Amino acid sequence: MKYTVITGASSGIGYETALAFAARGKNLILVARRLDKLEELKNEIHNINPELDVLPCRVDLSVTEQAYNLYNKLKGYEIETWINNAGLGESSSVTDQNLEKIESMLRLNIESLAILSTLFVRDYSNVEGTQLINVSSALGYATYIGGITYSASKYFVSAFTEGLAKELELKSAKMKAKVLAPAVTETEFEKTAQDVDEFDYKNFMPKYHTAKQMAGFMMELYDNDKVVGIVDESYNFNLRDQIYPIIG
Amino acid sequence: MKYTVITGASSGIGYETALAFAARGKNLILVARRLDKLEELKNEIHNINPELDVLPCRVDLSVTEQAYNLYNKLKGYEIETWINNAGLGESSSVTDQNLEKIESMLRLNIESLAILSTLFVRDYSNVEGTQLINVSSALGYATYIGGITYSASKYFVSAFTEGLAKELELKSAKMKAKVLAPAVTETEFEKTAQDVDEFDYKNFMPKYHTAKQMAGFMMELYDNDKVVGIVDESYNFNLRDQIYPIIG
Question: Do A102 and B125 touch (CB under 8 A)?
Fold first, then answer.
């Protein structure tokens, strides 16, 4: 039995992506800190399709040791798709940024993503039909002055994943590695990034996608052979080859 | 009395940069894991100029806690220039990479650099004549297939530092932030990256700079108002404005 792993599945793009994979009949391993939200999602999935196997996993990926623990725990499962979607933002200038929050963000956005990508690629790169999708950001291709360290963490994700896609291609590996690069998406992201209780996308953001729309783009990327799925300045979704130059 | 801080000063570009700042009459705080090498460097500096105050600091910046300890230890010193030069490479495919080494690399190249940059900017951004120089790599602008995770860590450094330079400019801060992006340089880098005892640049690298040449470029960047000093494909040194797009 094959599984799709989605980190950060308790809300936003991860939550909606889980529903989209469930609609395709995929068994799911759902990863997040909030087990109650994962249980809700599991119920919602079983309302769509009671046959699916859904495994909620309570993990805090800002603690890198837990990334290893998660992967070891899943050793007995056959994984088809791994989506590193979990991510944290920090909206402030470098001068004012909270370093404790920055460290958690770097561990989650960069370290755990690199660790989980490496472990998955090591075991599955020669298995037909496997995919690794890492969620970066449009800000992984253009630096946002109000969140420079966040942007830089997403440059890491973009360069790492685009490079990995080329490495796999050069090795004629069977796995595909892909980058999803959303722009503003209506999720819990801004609440966490700005440390506020509520954030009103309708009134404060000139343009944005809903999490459901982004999950739709995720599925377009999943179905396509291109490496990068990126939201452009006009909020159109583009499927592209690697954006950053590669030397070998 | 003002000081120039150089991390990774025990060899290579850091060592030669310390000598170059000493030749300009700058007092130095030298940071590295190998205290004996820093003591050698201190002696060499005192042969050039016995008047200079030189403070060797034994610190392992791949342990992020030590980045905070270093900064706190230096609270009593007036710092003019801070150079985050310490960095570690890893030459292998993502599939084969050693995750323990990757974690040390990410902590050093990304986390400690972000922490030390933030702490320095927080205290000194409005002090006339201050500079933060972060050492990235030409591979922070083009991904190298034989060291993708290393490249991606340098994309972080480039985007972070270029963004910070813009943040400081927009705030009319007095500090300048700059990125040095060397290509292949004859140092201990390849030995560490490839886990070998010796590496013969003359026989294995079609082109490279010596550490002394790169320290010369570092001083050109230091003397100039441009944000990026990058070695191009022809091994010419170029001073440029930000390379990555910035949105505000």
Answer: no
Judged by CB atoms closer than 8 Å, whether chains meet at A95 and B103 is answered as no
SS3 for B126? coil
Q: Smallest Cα–Cα separation from A217: which of A207, A227, A231, A203?
A: A231
Q: What is the pLDDT of residues A156-194, one digit of tens each?
A: 999 999 999 999 999 999 999 999 999 999 888 888 888
CB pairs < 8 Å spanning A and B: 159
Interface of A with B in 56-85 (CB under 8 A): 64
Chain A residue at shortest CA distance from B142: A245
Quote the pLDDT of residue A194. 87
Do A167 and B147 form a contact (C-beta atoms < 8 A)? no
Chain A, residues 150-189, CB within 8 A of chain B, namely 151-153, 155-160, 162-164, 166-167, 170-171
- Gap from A180 CA to chain B (nearest CA, Å): 16
Residue B248 has pLDDT above 90, yes or no: no
In chain A, domain spans = 2-240
In the block, residue with structure tokens 């005192």: B46
Label residue A202 by pLDDT band (50, 70, 90): confident
Identify from A99, A119, A134 which residue to disrupt to test chain B contact, counting B C-beta atoms within 10 A and taking the largest count. Answer: A99
pLDDT above 90 (res B202): no
CB contact under 8 A, A246 and B142: yes
Pairing of strands A246-247, A237-240: unpaired
How far, in Å, CA of B42 to CA of B39, rounded? Answer: 5
Q: Could you tell me which chain A residue has the CA closest to the CA of B68?
A: A99
ipTM of the shown complex:
0.97
Residues whose CB is less than 8 angstroms from the CB of residue A119 and which lie 6 or more positions away in sequence, other chains included: A68, A71, B99
Query: CA A46, A51, A57 angle in degrees (round to 5)?
Result: 60
Give residue-wise pLDDT tens across range B127-138: 999 999 999 999
Tell me which of 2.60.40.1090, 3.90.1800.10, 3.40.50.720, 3.40.190.10 is the CATH number of domain A2-240: 3.40.50.720
Query: Model-level pTM?
Result: 0.97
Which residues of chain A have a CB within 8 Å of the CB of B170?
145
Confidence of residue B186 (pLDDT cuts 50, 70, 90): confident
